Amino acid sequence: MNNNWPIVNFIVRWILGLLFLMAGYWKVFVLTPAAHAQQFFVDGFADTWIPGWLLNALGYGIPVLELAAGLLLCIGLRTREALIAVGLLLIVTTYGHALQQPLFDIDGHTFTRLALIIFLLLAPGGSDKYSVDGWLRQRTTP
User: Fold this and answer.
1) Hey, where are the domains in the chain?
2) Which of 66, 76, 126, 141 has its CA 20 to 30 A from that of 32?
3) pLDDT tens across 95-132, in order?
């Protein structure tokens, strides 16, 4: 394994983690989950097939998920699970944007985040040396 992988993995994981952490922080502590749910989900998708209870659940849940997953990515704890969570979140938000605008351009936030998620998922196993996961793995390996 190239000895640059651990530092590359650290940098990419922190960039991705900060993107989600700061988005989640803003939505939870500045905008509030209630306002996020109302503004971006209930009002935005009221005329679609999606039931109100699901719009509310997603609107309240996504900010908390972004905040938690972003923090986990930054510290490198349960990284694979956090990457899967934010990947699923991108699927949900991409569907929502495409439902509102069928020719939605994913070149902005979505594609960049997706590329970073894929990069980290494809990085060589054990290359996350500078993370809590790496530290835990090192402690349990004789």
Assistant:
1) 5-140
2) 76
3) 999 998 888 888 888 999 999 999 999 999 889 999 99
